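Retro notes
What went well: the complex prediction finally ran end to end.
Inputs used:
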Amino acid sequence: MKHKRTLTAVAAAMAGSLALAGCTGQSAGGGDTDDSTLTIWHYENEDSAMGQAWAKAIEIFEEENPDVTVDVEKQTFEQIQKNAKIVLTGDDVPDVMEFNKGNATAGQLAAQGLLTPLTDAATERGWDEKLSGSLATTATYDEQGLMGSGEWYGVPNYGEFVGVYFNKDMFAEQGLEVPTTLDELDDVLAAFKEEGITPLAEAGAEYPLGQLWYELVLAYGDRALVDDYQLFANDVDFHNDAMTQATEKLDEWIDKGYIASDSAALTAEDMGVSFIDGTYPLMVSGSWWFGRLAAETEADWGQFNFPGNTLHTGSSGNLWVVPANADSPSLAEEFIDITLRPEVQNVLATEGGLPVAGDPSVIKDERTRELTENFQAILDQDGLAYYPDWPVAGYYDVIVSELQSLVNRSKTPAEVLDGLQNSYDEGKADLLDG
Amino acid sequence: MADTALTDRRARADQRPRTPRGTRRRRAPWVGYLPYLLPGAAAFAVVIGYPLLTNVYFSLFKWRGGMAPLRWNGLGNYADLMGDEKFWTSFGNSLAMIVAMVLVPTLLGLVLAAVLFDYLGRRFGERVSSVLRATYYLPQILPVAVAGVLWNWILNSQTGALNVILRGIGVETPPNWLGDPATALPSVMLVLIWVQMGYPVVIFMAALQRVDPELYEAAELDGAGWWDRFRAITVPQIRPETFVVTLTCTVAALKVFGPIYVLTRGGPESSTLVPSYYSYLSFFDKSQVGYGSAIATVLTLVIVVVALIILGLQNRAERREREGV
Amino acid sequence: MAVATDPRPDLRPAQVRATAVDSRYRRGPGRWLVLAAAVLVGLAVLAPFGIMLLNAFKSPQDYAANGPLSLPSSLYLDGVVAFWERTDFPVKLWNSVFISALVAVGGALLSLLNAYAIGIGRVKGRLWIVALFLLANMLPQEALIYPLFTMAQAVGLSNSQWSVIIIFTVIQSAFGTYLLSSVLGTFPPALLEAAALDGASRWRILWQVVFPIVRPTLSVLMIFFFIWTWNEFFIPLVMLTSNDTQTIPIALASLQGDRMMDAPTINAGSLVSLVPAVIFFLIFQRTLTRGVTAGAVK
């Protein structure tokens, strides 16, 4: 049996390379070398909102294309993230694939010519109308792999954003209301601390602390700063007002004990679990926690947008991309189109998946509706400001490391900003160089 | 008896390679063994040789991987490396890794193997020592990612077992094992010892099998105690395995990646950064394939030098033993 | 070529007295202390596994509410079952077993051949040859992966388990060559001379004289190779791109997403994947103590 597999692999490889040799240029529609199979790779859990919505999309696709077999390969996040660059250079690639959005990820693939441009399909099928403003920013990339302009390379189905989860029971115990400004949030934090409760669940070893920092930057900053920081519109001086105030604010919170002093090595998992079990009343993190909190939290809980901000950490969800060496690009485009249809988008809505083109009125569950409406409010203000580690490759580790120093009190805010500045400038030069 | 001798001689004559008596060519005996090396050499060239050369080749360029263009950089990557503080920190941490993965496990493994095989095996039977050996080896079977999760449950500063116990006995602020740069490296070393110690135990116990029990009997009859027997017989007899354990553990220590990745990601504040992890960051996170290749090449060079030194020592010891005998 | 008598030296294993419980040693309290100490070390080693067991059968709600150190309030198997079905575990299990077993055997065989030439044949320049082979083990895997992937593609072995098998056979045999050649370097020359005098060819000497004596070492190699390959993650991750060829560590990684992880199921899944490796170890452990000794020189 193994020999047969080897022979089939060899045959497939040969057939694939022969076929590719036959069609040279990239065409956005037609030019399929194989129109009988659609291979999809993704890494979302089946019972997640995305998993269910995509199952529905596959169902619809199969109905409308009875002579096409859909082959779904469930991958792991790490596999696709680390290996896409290597694997996509080969012939054994899927037709449509889920991939992370942003310069450092999809942008890189686009810049290296590993993805099929989807601009024609986007205009023909009206995707550019369904996805607007900051949602569409992550769909387009230029030749250097910077988002915001250039060809369409990916299509998101959903969005994600960072807000504040709070334990309603603990709030009620202290007689506290949901804060609407940053000052009110300060008061809430102080109130909890007075009672001996550390208010903010945090994780210094992974993304959460960085996202909190970024929320504060957005609290003091504006869209121009975001454009400079994320899209390289202008140079960024990290010692500007907004970032300095944000870092000092965070430092103040650490000083006052609003964040546990030993958070440096805690992981997002630790943070989530400690919120769920009621150790901390507040958790600043993203919509991806929603499903799990709903399933596991015993106390009454809710979610509100970061108080006082018009800009919020968040972006479109992961993108559907079509590899350059895919052998059924037009089938891929059809599939993507189906995922944007109301039937599929509404599945996302009801499951708390934050659809890009869904109808909140179909949502029955109150908390889910609250989450979706909060997201909609941000979209209406065009308030998505992406993530702090996006601008430059490898920035995630830099942010984690610098903020760990802050929590461990081994660096001052000014020194942290210096560290962030250096890596940012280095990485930016690298990116723009070639 | 005479018949068999005759048959023997005839059989031998049949089997010996035929060389005409007058023109006996002196062919060094080892040449005949060369064919045995062929499969290994061929496979090696393909799977290791070619990629190694490619890696060195990449290190001379600036490259982002995939289908991005390669830009010639000569020895620029290496020059950058020499001035890179993190690079030197990572090699400094390697020394700690060597302590945790070579010194302690080898010594501990040797003692445990001897105790298990020699002492307990004789007094309680083989079954007991086998069970204990399997127990010590179990951490080696566990995938590193899972070991990371488990140890996080122990070392976690808030919910970890260790600190829960410490708080239970009255320690108010137990150390932040993995989050404090001062304790992070020792904590990682502890985990590495736990992971690594089973390996020498298994190798040494197999090695002890080779030792002629008559040697022990004779020594015992002469009145030698356990420690004397250990020193005079056990240690010299298993010298080849000792060298092997030392070398392989050293290479593993210089190359260590998995446990760092799952426990601390090189942090906090680069206190547990190691060369292999730094190379990985360059390769995948920062997409600086050329730089990552340079780090990998330097790391390989260091490993090769260290290995050659140890191999040289081993060779010398072996030669001395042969001549002594 | 009939031979009337067996010309080989007597290689029947001498009576192994080292491991049988000798009545002489039964008495004395000291041994109990030593045993207790060894067991204590064993328990310390097992402690993390205890925590693993505590959490493998816990529901996520239970885990979130009560933390990792509590006893599960009830036995929860849904997570494992869901994992089993979602990753099509039996397929992954078979793939892992297939790859690891072939590498174990192939690696041991390759090591034996190499080590025979180096350790016993004393090939010229053997120090350098061993060092060269060891290079396979010294190279960090990130350095190898790009070229290996393109090569596999070029010969049509992409997404094939054979690429993984070949790669790991070479990598593991580097260690095996080193260990075996070190051991064979101290092989009693008297045995070899005796066999050569009786006119045995190199091939026969290998299989009839050397092989029986280094069997424990070969068993060690096979155990190591199996377990090391079983847990290999990175190279299979890149080489095997479809669900039907992937191995267990890749399946386990699916429990760890971009931002979320499912700790209880990871534990349960790991427990399940540990079982075959442990079974393999226990089975082969017995071959380690079959008591073939070098005392047969006499």
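What we learned: The two ends of chain A are 46 Å apart (CA to CA).
What to try next: split runs per interface for comparison.
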